[in-house]
Amino acid sequence: MNLLRSEWTKFRGLRSTWITATVTVLAAVGVGLLAASGQARQYTPDTEDWDPTAVSLTSLFVGQLAIGVLGVLAMSGEYATGQIQPSVVAVPRRGRLLAAKAGVFAVVALVIGQVIGFVSFFGGQALIAAAGVPHASIGEPGVVRAVLGCGLYLAVLGLIGLGLATALRSTAGAIGTLVGITLLVRAVSRALPESWAEWMERYWPTAAGERITHVLTPAGVLTPWAGFAILCAFGAVVGVAGYTLLRVRDT
Amino acid sequence: MASLGGMSDTIEATGLTKRYGDRLAVDGLTFTVEPGRVTGFLGPNGAGKSTTMRLVLGLDAPTAGTVTVCGRRYPDLPRPLHTVGALLDAHAVHPGRTAVSHLLALAQTAGLGRGRVEEVLGLVGLANVAGRRVGTFSLGMAQRLGIAGALLGDPPVLMFDEPVNGLDPEGIRWVRTFMRGLAAEGRTVLVSSHLMSEMALTAHHLLVIGRGRLIADTGIDEFLREHGDEAVLVRAGEQDRLARVLRRTGAELSAHDDGLLVRGLTAGDVGKLAAGEGIALEELSARRRSLEDVFMALTGDAVEYGVEYGVGA
């Protein structure tokens, strides 16, 4: 409890944290709304697999990077400034230090993620409805799960950012890796032979994890929770790697 | 002041060794830092002082040997902040936080609150800048902030790495008095410095290291007596006659400027002998080989090493 209180003091004591958090929400919601109005305009009755919920939650495309950066900064800030030294002196059991930091950040990221999810959904559906295109309402089957799932997905991405920063200790390295994981690998995999590309679209952690924000589950993709489980497993691997390095390494 | 029941508040190193790549930073150090006095940890830059302190705090793991505080490895201490207070690098602070916020985050790990933070800020004279961002602090203020952090848990053992670096003369005097005050309260105080003159004014006991090895572990007075090599400088009109008188006592004489440097007699002896012979003295002063000289002689080897390989602090 003491450690959680300490980490919360650290988190809220930085202006950069609040700026990054605000930018995360604004950028993600903004992109979500743009995507909703854009795709609503392109909608024709022939559009296959029209999933207005998932369309409005496109916000996670940008949101995942921004919240991942927030997670990176929560840990890499300690290394970049040397703050890690007094932090580890105060809490020499480094696993507990990491757990407290991750715990506080998980709550913050979840709140930010849910704000993004719900604002994007309601704003997006309003735009889609205004365009006279079929839209979703929160009471329909699977919709609440998808909207909540958007926040969950973003929280896990934030934690992956924190884990990467713990393992790599450098802001630039961690953000670079994060961009690779979320955007580059998927972009490159589309250029691969079709069978490989399909496999990547199904099982690559962020691709699989995204399924939780979709109401429709077309043939050939994982179910929402199965996909999300793959993302969580990936996050756990990153977390364990960070924890192990933090424990064995000289500070 | 908190203390672990029954355990003496010492820092004990046994065969402590740390290797970074192929560089041996700390080489088989064995020492005990005792409570109730300021122990000066003296050595040139790159001698291994900071590394040793990092090993004490568990920041780095020793390659061989052990070091304990109050009988335990630092990471095994149940209440680290209440046992050891340390300032290694005043700049190792997130510049974006206010002084209060920084200290509060540290205090909370030990279950302490804002009240204690305000107390220590008062103790180090930073109460009026408590709400300022640490990034705007001068080095002197950052040092004080670091000392405040070390005091949070009112620990029986304190460790400061070059605490007077970057301080103005007033700040230096403040730190000096403060360290001695902490020791007078019965605490164990280990202070590192590369300045012999600083240690002469602050420390009661010395651990001298060079090239990662322990060169001396001794009281500062013994250290001076052993290495200080006292001499007396005397000047007189009838210098040749004075020299004959002094030589009769078996004293060793050498020319120094236009006077005589006398070894083997005290200034009082020289004065009495001169008076007995009716020789008027123009100058009579006790000369000590400076501590810096002694230090350089002892660690000269290590200093060369530092320059040659560009080893940092």
TrEMBL record, chain A:
This is ABC transporter permease. One of its GO terms (cellular component) is plasma membrane. It holds the Pfam family ABC2_membrane_4. The chain crosses the membrane at residues 21-40, 60-81, 102-123, 143-165, 172-192, 225-246. Keywords: Membrane, Transmembrane, Transmembrane helix. It comes from Actinophytocola xinjiangensis. One of its GO terms (molecular function) is ABC-type transporter activity.
